[in-house]
Amino acid sequence: MFADKEKSRVAEKSDKAGGGLWENVKVIVQALLLAVVIRTILFQPFTIPSGSMMPTLLVGDYLFVNKFSYGYSRYSLPFSPNLFSGRIFASEPDRGDIAVFRFPPNPDIDYIKRVVGLPGDRVQMRDGELYINGEVVKREADGLFRADDQYDTGEPIPIFRETLDTGVSYDTLDTRPGTIGDNTREFLVPEGHYFMMGDNRDNSADSRFDVGFVPAENLIGRASLIFFSLGNDTAFREIWKWPTNLRWDRLFKVVE
Predict the structure, then answer these.
(1) Tag placement on the chain: N or C end, fewer CB within 10 Å?
(2) Residue 87: which residues within 8 A CB-CB, separation 6 or more?
(3) Rounded to an integer, what distance in angstroms lies between the CA atom of residue 200 and that of residue 184?
(4) pLDDT score at 41
């Protein structure tokens, strides 16, 4: 009788342990599925790997990309399965947006640049000034910039603030006059494509060069919020360096 009771208690404990383990597994699976859904449909984290978008975005910025802002293409999905062509729930970017997209010559690579030209636009650089449809974009001096990482040239770089005809305003860098990207031919943006440029005008591989026109299908989303930022070439895993290298003023900063 006593032995039977002990066996019953052991079995009951075993059932509770098994049930508790199963509940934990379900919670973990649900959390993973939720994370996949959020990353696939809503927001994707992105790290700035180069200085091509300085001073707007810096190396070491960690930001969220809004994936539903432009709709969805095969590149919105993990591993980019060829399930459909074009975009669904498509919405056109606004001129001045900062967009993440797949590099047209090699769609395995993500790029981030500013949308400068929309379909049908004529885009050209003349003596360092941006022209859209024959009209110069307003440009005025806006101080000096100096990087806090590998892109520090040792001297402050002139900042020029551009203001589009839509009222969108943002800072650009002009490291030196007369570079290859300061004077270009006039580009006519084809239907269903976009012209992208980096804010660091003299140090950006963009639509003026090998990036070319970016198909709408290659768009992943619009950069929306910087949620973390580390300066001085600090790796995310170097937690012990966070207190001195964390850019506090950039935390939860809206990307413009």
Answers:
(1) N
(2) 70, 71, 72, 73, 216, 217, 219
(3) 16
(4) 59
